[in-house]
Structure formats: structure tokens, C-alpha cells
Amino acid sequence: MKILSIETSCDETAISLVEASGGVESPTFSVLANALYSQIDIHKEYGGVFPMLAKREHAKNLTPILEKVLKEAGIIKKESSFVPEEKWEKIKEILKKEDGLYEHFRSFLEPIQKPEIDVICVTSGPGLEPALWVGISFALALGELWELPVVPVNHMEGHIFSVLTQNEDSRKIQFPALALLISGGHTEIVVIDDFGRYKIVGKTLDDAVGEAYDKTARMLGLPYPGGPEISRLSEFATKNNLPHTAKLPRPMLHSHDINFSFSGLKTAVLYYLRDNFNFGTDNKIEPSEEQKADIAREIDDAVTEVLVTKTKKALEQYGAKTLIVAGGVIGNPRLRLSFQELEKEFSGLVVKVPTKSLSTDNAVMIACAGYIKISRDPKILTYPQQIRANGNLSLE
Ligand code: KG4
Ligand code: ZN
Questions:
Q1: At residue 80, does pLDDT exceed 80?
Q2: Strand (E) positions, 238-337?
Q3: Residue-level pLDDT at 378
């Protein structure tokens, strides 16, 4: 089955074409084309993502990215198939809220033939609703034009199944599995009894872990997104054996549950900077690169210790056979290593993390999760094409 997948939940506009086979028993994926446009440089100025700006950028970039994907997959045929004007009217109606998208859409798609694609999958939540709507409208317009089913996909399910692209038989997901989802908006521990059966057993009570990286990085004067910056500096501190001066708390490390809290870490960094560098006052002293690196390493250490300790607690409590750690934050090398080491501590446990490029938001993971959804319930391909964005969509 050839799946065209679309992801626009936050600040990445991503489309991919994935060939999927094997069903839930043996899901196998081959990426035929994958393109992504990151809006990071645009949002950097503001230190975070602005939903209306993200929406406008998605509308501008979706058509060129689709063109790139179809070209990369070698499936553009430059002969037009006749599309009646009524159909264009319907498409215009679907795209009416997205600035200029109808015009781009029609001028690129009118002269080409319907490519060999079986289904379109699109992220419907969670995320920024204005951003989600652009992707959904675009998917529905393509579905109308090419007469293809459109399947909504949960972004967090996408992160979970981002680990499926490494098709090694011996390392398949065995149930019950446990997933630790760590991204810019989520920090969740999920028990997975089977495909599609989720129970959230732990979550953050305030900030998400990615948010903690982004906010503390900002205090250190580092650009958005802060996670990669902190991990780069942290590696520098470790490699150069810089003295450990900064000390930060490990929030909720010893609490009896498996919930998290990261806002205290943010406040602790703020106080540390205020007390040592007069941060927030006129006569502030800039920390040196080495001092920043020391703080970054301490942030990394604190986050790693809390995430690993709580995950171990959850593994003891729920006895999972597979541990999946996914979401943008698992791009962090220190965390990747610490979680992979759990295989030594828990006999029989297989730890799965996505490749680095599939850790942050992308469309391949949406195709993977979409395929699992379709394989479990092929009837969804015949459902009426009514998809709504849901910014707070949950896994349960
Ligand atoms: O999954 P993702 O791409 O988007 C959301 O669904 O939120 O995650 C983005 C988050 C950002 O907060 C970013 O700073 C963080 O992932 N991140 C990292 C690293 N790379 C990205 N955090 C720590 N270390 C990294 N290397
Ligand atoms: Zn994400």
C-alpha cells in the first residue's frame, strides 16, 4: 500500500510517500520520498512558535513540498487528466480558509496525472489547531481531486510508531510495551497492551520536558529550539571535563508516582543565573561559554536522571517487554545512551528509539501510524471524509 502522509501540527511542514506492507503482524515500511521544511528560522526571532504564522507558512510550503516528494519518488506524469470545474469548486471550498493555497494547489496539480497512491494520512492532533487545519484541508483537497480516502492520525501515535522503520524481525514491538513520549508539548508514560490500546500511566504536571529545554536555553541566550543547543553544550562540557559548578534539583525524583514536573527546573536555572550572574538586572554578567556548558550539562543530567528513574519505576510496575522512547527530545545523545543501557538492567527488554532524523516531527511516522490504524480496521478507508483538528487529542 502506498501512503502519502502529511504532518503540519507545529513548525515543520512535512510530506512523505511510504510503501507499507505486512499488516500488524509484520509491518514493513520503505520510504520512497520524504521532504520537510522547518520553519525554525522564522520562529527563532520570537523564541517560540506562533500558531498563525505557522499556519501561513504551512499554506505557502505544502504545494512545493508535495511537488518535491512526487519528483523524488519519480511519479509525476506531466499529462493532465480532465477535472471538471465542479470538482475544482469543491476543492476551492475545502481550501477557502487557507491563504493562497487553492491557487498554488490548482496550478501545480491541474497539469499532472493522478499518481499511484492508495491512501492519504494526515495528522489531526494534538498540536496547534490553525496549523493542523492547513494540513487537514490540504489532505482533503487531494483526496477530493484524486478520489482517495483520507485517514486522520494522532501525532503521538506517530511518534510511537516512528520506531517501526527499523525493520529488524528480532526487535519487533512485543506487548505489553511501554512508551515514554518526550517532545515539546508532551511528557507521557504510556502502557501499550496491543496496537491501538493505550493507557497513560504517567505525565507531566506542568511543563513538558522539551519545553524545559527550550525555556532554560532561552535564559542562557541560546536560540530556539533549545534542546539541540543544550545537548551540544552538554557534550562539550563532558568532552572537556569542565568542572561541575552548577547544581540543579531533580524534580519529583522520589515521589511515589510516575508523574513528572519540569517547571521547578526552569525556576532553578533562573535563580542560579540571578544569584551568580545578576540575571534579570541591568548589571548582568554574561556567563562564559564554559559556564553555559556547565549549566547545560547539569540540565541534561537532571532531565536524564528524572526520566530514567521514572521509566525504570514504570518498567518494574508494568513489566513491559518493549520500551519505546520517542519524540523530539530523544534526539539527545545522552538520553539515547542512558535508555539503551536499560537493556542490560532489565533482562529480555528490547529498547527501541527512532533514528535521529525521525525523532523530531516528520511525515514518515504519520504514514507508519496510519498504516497500523488501517491494518487494524480497513473499514476506515470507506468512512466519510470528515476530519477535524483537535489540538488536545489524547491517546486514550
Ligand atoms: O517531537 P518534536 O519535534 O515536536 C513536538 O511534537 O513537540 O519535539 C520538539 C522538541 C523541542 O522542545 C526541542 O527542543 C526538543 O524536542 N529537542 C531536543 C533535542 N532535539 C530536539 N531536546 C533535547 N535534546 C535534543 N538533542
Ligand atoms: Zn512531535
A1: no
A2: 322-326
A3: 97
Neighbours of 45 (CB within 10 A): 11
* Statement: residue 43 has pLDDT above 90: no
* 362 vs 70: CA distance, rounded Å: 17
pLDDT digits (tens, 9 = 90+) for 222-250: 998 999 999 999 999 999 999 999 999 99
The whole-number average pLDDT for the span 147-160 is: 98
125, 392 contact by CB (below 8 A): yes
Q: Which of 329, 364, 392, 395 to mutate to test the pocket of ligand 1 (most atoms within 8 A of CB)?
A: 329
Ligand 1 atom, smallest distance to 127 CA: 6
CB 140, CB 91: distance < 8 Å: no
Give start and end residues of each alpha helix (H) in 110-150. 129-146
* Burial of 196 (C-beta count, 10 Å sphere; 0-12/13-18/19+): middle
Q: Which of the listed residues 360, 365, 393, 395 should we mutate to test ligand 1's pocket, taking the one with most ligand atoms within 8 A of CB?
A: 360
Helices (H) and strands (E) in the chain, counts: 13, 10
Kindly indicate the confidence band of residue 81, based on its pLDDT and cuts at 50, 70 and 90. confident
CA distance 59 to 55: 6
Do the Cβ atoms of 190 and 178 come closer than 8 Å?
Answer: yes
For residue 372, report the distance from its CA to the centre of ligand 1, in Å: 24
For ligand 1, which residues put their CB under 6 angstroms from it? 10, 183-185, 210, 213-214, 225-228, 231, 327-329, 331-332, 360-361
Residue 207 belongs to what H/E stretch? none
Residue 170 has pLDDT above 70, yes or no: no
pLDDT value for 130: 97
**106-136 residue pLDDT tens:** 999 999 999 999 999 999 999 999 999 999 9
Cβ atoms of 24 and 195 closer than 8 Å: yes
